[in-house]
Design brief:
The chain has 237 residues and is α/β, with parallel strands linked by helices. It has seven helices and four strands. A four-stranded parallel sheet has the order 2-1-3-4, sandwiched between helices. Helix 2 links the parallel strand 1 and strand 2.
């Protein structure tokens, strides 16, 4: 497979320099690489989604993509083997230092593409921690108006937010070979607040992934990308 040359991991430093000199903006994806996603999705489902979304945004805009940040603040999942969470303070500091490093190269803007929920507050705090020399835009993938409306129209589950009907539908489009629908299990009861445990969510899912379809996943991703592309275009304008 030909490398996507919008990812700096696939570029030389000289190519990065040339893209920045020509006005490319920066994109930093955030997507967990070690966070349980039920019995039917891999631990790096957030990373897979972050990379997929980043690549498509960079096809429509002049963006270069820094490596996806695969560790973050995910305290709700740490009772499941393999799931890791940084402290909130460390994650906030990590974001601030990475963004400062990118900002030193003076791109016209820095976009932080956030696939998480518990990571939203710390990222906002990091971006508000100082005055920045370049514009910063926090892209929250679930909060666009088109995505929210599409999710409301399509959702059958009565509650959910993790490895659920919606996320599984998206993964059926993005990485269908990584999804094992035969192992998908709904949360037995809910909704509830607080961390997921093997008592309240035995499979690790929060919601009903058995309702997922690739058709709904495509509609959700189309809406999500429309929201994100509009946000990027408005910021660059």
């Amino acid at each position: 497979m030909k490398p996507d040359n919008n990812f700096i991991a696939h570029m030389t430093w000289h190519e990065v320099e040339a893209r920045l000199a020509n006005g490319a903006a920066a994109l930093l994806p955030i997507g967990a690489g070690a966070k349980q996603h039920g019995l039917h999705l891999p631990m790096n489902s957030d990373e897979i989604q972050a990379d997929w979304l980043a690549a498509r945004l960079a096809r429509n805009h002049d963006l270069i993509i820094w490596p996806t940040l695969r560790y973050g603040y995910y305290p709700a999942f740490t009772s499941f083997p393999g799931s890791l969470s940084l402290s909130e303070s460390l994650f906030k500091s990590l974001i601030a230092e990475i963004v400062a490093g990118i900002a030193a190269w003076k791109p016209p803007a820095i976009f932080i593409l956030n696939t998480g929920i518990s990571t939203l507050g710390p990222v906002d705090a990091a971006l508000a921690s100082k005055a920045w020399a370049v514009p910063l835009v926090h892209l929250r993938i679930h909060e666009g108006t088109r995505y929210a409306a599409t999710a409301r129209a399509l959702t059958q589950q009565t509650f959910g937010s993790h490895a659920d009907e919606l996320e599984t539908s998206r993964m059926l489009v993005i990485a269908p070979k990584a999804v094992d629908m035969a192992r998908a299990e709904p949360t037995p009861s809910g909704p509830f607040d607080g961390p997921l445990t093997r008592q309240n969510a035995p499979s690790g899912s929060y919601g009903d992934p058995t309702l997922a379809t690739s058709a709904n996943g495509q509609a959700l991703l189309d809406a999500m990308l429309a929201d994100l592309n509009e946000a990027v275009a408005n910021a660059l304008a």
